[in-house]
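Justification of computing resources. Each target in the renewal requires a structure prediction run like the one illustrated here; the chain below, 135 residues long, is used simply to show the kind of job we budget for.
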Amino acid sequence: MAEDQINSLFERGLKVRREVLGKEYVDQSLAKANDFTMAFQRVTSEWCWGYVWDRPGLERKTRSMLNLAMLTALGKIPEVKLHVRGAINNGVSVDEIKEILLQATIYSGIPAGLDAFKAANEVLVELGLLPQPSN
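Resulting structure tokens:
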């Protein structure tokens, strides 16, 4: 692949990544990158966000729903938190997130589901989409 195509893929990926995850989060990730970790930032932006997320085959909402289920199954809780925010940005409702996590819980196990529910709840409360828990 020519360098101009790679740079174009990187720029497309950054655009999608910022739209889904938020400009502040993405720009902060890039600002923290050094020569070593920038390789990861590039491949993530190019292939994950520029190639896969920017494909026409699925809507972003569907991609967010799939991510939440897969990340729950993999037990990647920091990524669950990040992608709950992205899912909200992509039009996934709180009730849909609950149903996705229930579905993932049944197929990936109660401990994975519990962790994902806790993480999602934390983010949804932070975003003001669920009431603060009373102590």
